Prior knowledge:
Blueprint: E1 4-5, E2 10-12, E3 15-18, E4 29-34, E5 38-48, E6 51-56, E7 68-72, E8 78-81, E9 89-91, E10 107-110, E11 121-122, E12 127-129, H1 133-138, E13 141-142, E14 149-151, H2 157-167, E15 169-170, E16 178-187, H3 189-202, E17 208-214, H4 219-239, E18 243-249, H5 251-264, H6 278-286, E19 291-292, E20 298-306, H7 315-323, E21 326-330, H8 332-336, E22 343-350, H9 366-390, H10 397-414, H11 424-435, H12 448-454, H13 462-475
Parallel strand pairs: 9-17, 14-20, 14-21, 16-17, 16-18, 18-20
Antiparallel strand pairs: 1-7, 2-3, 3-6, 4-5, 4-7, 5-6, 8-10, 11-19, 12-13, 12-15, 21-22
Helix pairs in contact: 2-3, 4-5, 6-7, 9-10, 9-11, 10-11, 11-13
Amino acid sequence: MAIEHLNLSSIEGPLVVIDGVREAAYGDIVRFRTNKKEEKIGQVISIEGERCLIQVFDQTTNMSLNNTHTTFSGHGMEIDLSPDILGRTFDGLGRPLDELGPVHSDVQRDVNGAPLNPVSRVFPKNFIETGFSAIDGLMTLIRGQKLPIFSGEGLSHNELAAQIVKQAKLGEDVEGEFALVFAAMGVTHDTADFFRRTFEESGTMDHVTSFLNTADDPVMERIITPRVALTTAEYLAYDLGYHVLVILTDMTSFSEALREISNAKDEIPSRKGYPGYLYSELATIYERAGIVKGKQGSVTQIPILTMPNDDITHPIPDLTGYITEGQIVLDRDLQHKNIFPPIGVLPSLSRLMSDSIGADYTREDHEGVANQLFASYSSTIEARSLASVIGEEELSDVDKMYLEFGKKFEEEFVGQGMDETRTMKDTLNLGWDLLRLLPREELNRIDSTILDKYYENKEYSLQSSQQLNIKEGVNSGD
């Protein structure tokens, strides 16, 4: 039986202290009732003897030391789950924002999740198609992987995230249902409305569940939001068998919320003022991606973070890089060239890509094309540096070819229209179109048998694959 406490010991901003508590545990949810009318909830964030420190998920301006009734629930934050959560929009705590009423279900799960035995993990294999050539071709997203996007203030990561939600899908001839869970943390109301409107207008809402936490919501809610989203994803994947892609933006807001609460608790700060347990907190989020032995579904993560001052050595991207399997880095120079998405190819990679592409997964030429595009673009950067010193007119004919290749690579391969989606076949054929701009002897990262089959064969070009897509659409009655 829950015990009700009648008085508070102190109130300091969003933090409440109660003495004489014996039944509480760290992480417990607490319910407050002011004047027996308004209800608020909070979470235990520190215990010293019989003194509890509670973070309130709301304003504390109308709470006083004598008029507040407090009840400890005896359990952590839980959310209701059912198949009907697909197509719904919630706030950061899982409360409906779409005026469709609460979720009715007998299934309740703790948002902190359950520990996963590493032995039960299955190595990620099959890919998820995002529709972006730079990602699918060069840093392929593998089902069960955690692949973050490192962005910066003012870069188009919100547009990129929204379009991934609109066009992401499983590869061809893959069994299983696909779903997306989208969580936004600390965003402005305009950004939240942009995401909500984009999903509704694109017709993808039927397989998307959204959690939107805005900048004026309580700080503690920002820490709960990714956990709520991942608990939803785990239910869809491991209970219902969906292959789920989770997009979390912005993990910098999550980390700054941790720092704010840590400072309020007078904890000793670490690098840049962040708490020493920032790594552990990020790991508890990122490590909830994966495939579990004996379960049909999977959870794949794309966490997005904005690097302060574009500094990739900042604690948030630095620690994220230790935990995740690669990164996609957005480039400010490409943004200035009006290239979307502005993905910086050379500092980006997917560490699980090499084991999950090729004849059994994508196409036999995929690895060779990716390696050669990386190498050729690297030669473009060298040619540009040389041209800045001696002038473009003094370059060799091959270096001039690389300059032309690099220009088309950025504009046509990395760059896509805001509503343009490409299949994996389109991406690989476009890669061959670009490589044909270079002499065959320069293509030293591709096996000679693959070159013999693809280099001179115009059947493997973007134009031919688009014509095939149109023909297949006509034959199918589309």
